[in-house]
Amino acid sequence: MSSKVSALLKLLIASRGQNPLTKSVVFSQFRKMLIYLEEPLKAAGFKTLRLDGSMNANKRAQVIKEFGVTGQDVPTILLASLKASGTGINLTAASRVYLLEPWWNPGVEEQAMDRVHRIGQKEDVKIIRLIARNSIEERILELQEKKKKLAKEAFGRRTAKDRRRDIGVDDLLGLMSL
Questions:
Q1: What is the model's pLDDT at position 165?
Q2: Checking DSSP bridges between strand 96-99 and strand 126-129, what pairing results, if any?
């Protein structure tokens, strides 16, 4: 078992210890990772559902509906593909979000997180990113921050201090090349 999967299990077990009814969404870019996670989670006593791009619209709707059911002896963990879970669904039954890998486009991650943290959410939402140290994942986070900063400078509201530095063609090209 990888150190990342081990860390995820520890976090989920701790969350369950605080409140056994807490629901969590675990996002991954990789369908195979979601499938791989099913066995160690089951061995740890968790009931899970999976939502990924291989499912048709009816199956996805069924999984989302089942995840929304509250009470004892119901699935508390949704293993979800980052891209398949990004738009048009409501996952407010969960109050914990775990991101297993960063995506180069921060907007994709934000859309996925917004499925949990939106109107109708009754709990405080906790978002946890699992990032491997000294890996490409740290570089991806740096790229995300650069993209956010460039987008804010190019399209956001600027303060008087910001206006002193005009956005140039090189800045926009940098945004597009990240």
A1: 54
A2: parallel
